[in-house]
UniProtKB/TrEMBL annotation:
Compartment list: Membrane
Keywords: ANK repeat, Glycoprotein, Ion channel, Ion transport, Membrane, Repeat, Transmembrane, Transmembrane helix, Transport
Record Pfam families: Ion_trans (PF00520)
Segments traversing the membrane: 17-35, 47-65, 77-95, 115-137, 189-215
One cellular-component annotation, GO: transmembrane transporter complex
Listed GO MF terms: monoatomic ion channel activity
Native source organism of the sequence: Pocillopora meandrina
Residues of the Ion transport domain: 18-224
Protein name: Ion transport domain-containing protein
InterPro entries reported in the protein's UniProt record: Ion_trans_dom, TRP_cation_channel
Residue runs in coiled coils: none
Protein's membrane topology: Multi-pass membrane protein
Length: 340
């Protein structure tokens, strides 16, 4: 009994704890809006954060007031579900800050952006097919309205065409809507033609186009993986610099990060995650650091000397080419009897 009572009290205090964290987060977002002004809304991560906090606030308020504020509980749970999705989406995006995981998150975002661009381009075509099937097959549940038809078109885009249920059985059996004389497929020939055309132009061509673009994006990202990681880190630093004032950044800024040989193993493991450096490799780098500094100057001198030699060889080759061309032009001029 006592355990159940304590559990009930904990569950009652949970909305208050969430509300406290929510207020702190909203104040942070308001401060960023005040500091960045319109620049705040140009970053999609800020929009995700703000939408998540507002959705959570709408969901949590009835629990704090013990009243039904919206007249319909479905409104509350709609925003609660949206807040849950945004929370985990934001969590997934935050993994980009981890070097070993940032590449995969970048791949996902690039492929998603490509998919959205292509779908927006071909949205008119998909809408056209949705309207066509709504007109021809509106007696069926899967095409009973324009919105339901549009959702079915997107499902059919992935290959789930339901040929037997939609056309074959209804046409072969001349199936009618119960209680009426209306056929499920009143124009079977036209329906078959448009159905086959949809499979060819959308399920095969468009879907393979999306797959090909996704593979191309992933391949290009893998070829520039190191550069992508550096770009993500630079963008992260730049976004932090823009979000907060200078005096606040100075409080947390450190000119260097100190590592001790046998300490801070967790910190070292996090910093060097994704680089392939083990603890022994890190110690070797520290040990070789001093000796490599003395060798750097000699390496630079040797590099400069080799570069000068290569430049001199290139100049000699260019001079030889110019001399040869001059001789050829002189011979041609003499042959044609052209005098200077």
């Amino acid at each position: 009994g006592n355990a159940a009572t304590e559990a009930g009290e904990d569950s009652k205090s949970l909305p208050e704890v969430i509300f406290a964290f929510l207020i702190i987060s909203l104040l942070k977002e308001i401060f960023q809006i005040f500091w960045q002004r319109l620049g705040y809304f140009k970053d999609y991560t800020n929009l995700i954060d703000l939408s998540m906090y507002l959705s959570t606030l709408i969901f949590i308020l009835p629990y704090l007031t013990n009243q039904e504020l919206y007249g319909d509980v479905r409104v509350q749970w709609t925003f609660g579900t949206l807040a849950l999705l945004l929370c985990y989406s934001n969590w997934c995006l935050s993994l980009r800050r981890i070097t070993s995981l940032s590449l995969y998150i970048t791949m996902y975002i690039e492929v998603l952006q490509t998919f959205v661009r292509v779908i927006l381009i071909f949205a008119v075509l998909l809408l056209g097919y949705a309207l066509v099937f709504y007109v021809l097959l509106k007696e069926e549940d899967t095409f009973s309205s324009v919105w339901v038809s549009m959702a079915k078109i997107f499902v059919m885009l992935l290959g789930e065409v339901d040929y037997t249920d939609i056309l074959s059985d209804n046409v072969g059996n001349s199936a009618k809507v119960p209680g009426t004389s209306n056929l499920y497929v009143p124009l079977p020939v036209l329906s078959y033609i448009l159905f086959i055309l949809f499979v060819l132009s959308v399920s095969i061509v468009l879907m393979n186009l999306l797959v090909g673009l996704a593979v191309g994006d992933i391949d290009s990202i893998q070829k520039t993986a190191t550069l992508r990681n550096l770009i993500d880190q630079a963008l992260l630093v730049d976004s932090i610099r823009k979000r907060y004032p200078t005096w606040m950044l100075r409080l947390t800024y450190k000119e260097y990060l100190e590592f001790k040989l046998n300490q801070n193993t967790t910190v070292k493991r996090f910093v060097f995650s994704g680089t392939g450096l083990s603890n022994e490799d890190f110690l070797d780098i520290i040990g070789k650091n001093e000796s490599s500094q003395n060798e750097d100057e000699g390496d630079l001198d040797e590099y400069d000397r080799q570069r000068i030699e290569r430049q001199e060889e290139q100049i000699k080759r260019l001079q030889a080419t110019v001399d040869a061309q001059s001789k050829v032009l002189t011979a041609i001029a003499n042959k044609l009897g052209i005098n200077e």
